[in-house]
Amino acid sequence: MRTQLYSIVLLPFLLVLGCNNDPEVVVTEMPVISFEEIAAADRLPQFQIHTAGASIVDEPKIDAELVIIEAGVETHRGNIGIEIRGSSSQQFPKKSYGFETRDDANEDVDVSLLGFPEEEDWILYAPYSDKSLVRNHLIYELSNDMGRYASRSKLVDVYINEIYKGTYVFMEKLKRDSNRIDINKLNEDENTGEDLTGGYIIKLDKADGPIEDLYTDINSFPSKVAPSNSVVGQQIHFLHDDPDQEDITPEQKAYIAGYMNDFEAALASDTFTDPDTGYRAYIDTASFIDFFLLSELSNNVDGYRLSTWITKDKNEKLHMGPIWDFNLAFGNANYCGGDATNVWAYRFNERCASDSFQIPFWWQRLLEDPGFVTELQTRWTALRASTFSEAQLHEKINGYVAQLESSGSAEANFARWPVIGQYVWPNSFIGTTYGAEITYLREWISNRLEWLDTEIWNL
User: Fold this and answer.
1) pTM, entire model
2) Whole-angstrom Cα distance, residue 350 to residue 231?
3) Is ATP-binding one of the keywords UniProt gives this record (predicted)?
4) Whole-angstrom Cα distance, residue 102 to residue 202?
5) What is the pLDDT of residues 117-127, one digit of tens each?
């Protein structure tokens, strides 16, 4: 197939660089960027979306066509339904999108895109405040490398109606699927016995809708244990994801709420370390440890309290994960210690006790068990000799940067969205070049590893 080359002419437009009453910056002149000098083999995969002139909105999905070009060759063409996605990220002019693949009759259809396992639900995540462009991509690959499923992801360039939209991270949507969150499908007629025991996906997150902390008996259930150190009566809520609030039966709601309550009661009890009656009867400790180490490696300011997924399969214990949404991690948040390399992420409540979204008491309590701490330290030692070695982490980042620079995508993205050298909420570091942003990320990780190597033995 004929290789297609694209010239990108970036026209004047109004660019909002921040939020929370930050001033708007008017861009009056934009450079012309061309990919014509980039060999097709060096280009990132191109996602070309055609909407016949219709605007993509935040619901409902609109009809569109998706064409994917890899190394100059068209590898996919088909119908999609697409919408804007995200919560706080919707404040930014570079939008993220969710889309579902459809057949010629416009019905949902499972397909394989960029070599990922077949499915119908996909995400184009738009790094904007993350000027490295790779924080989510990095942490997801690390999780998969250590044997914990996270969304598969690849860096791509996106066009909508032939207008270049920048560099995106193409990724899988988290959902129950044999190749994603591999747990049992819980049907509406499974309301007794072992059938009732799974599978469930619940989340700690903002509630859907315009009021982010509007939790109801329909969409969620509350924890019976107050979060540690909170000062204004905050409460932890668990959102129903699968089955969702529309499909879950009263019996299933009662079961999963009861299981969570029993787990928390056991963890809070005086005999919480008892292997038969304590917390270990309810959770897969290895998954909790890996979740903890990924959250702490990156000092994810949203960790443990937002975008936090928990699963329970049939006849199984609670598993933490998959991880999700680390764009504010690795030193990219200027509040509540999010940029620090020398604080524990799990102690967020101590630094931001009045924040609406607090961390459950679980982690402090788990670390009071010497057995849990020993397992955690052993796992850390093993990971530091492999997936978490400084050399391997830097090698991954270097590989991403080489790909972004040789493809011309980093330059094109920041011409389209000129945020380098500008504050975008909630940046802690503001580099004057893309290279400076990458240097900050590398150095932050090195400093974080050095601190953790000491402090993990002081738990």
Assistant:
1) 0.93
2) 10
3) no
4) 28
5) 999 999 999 99
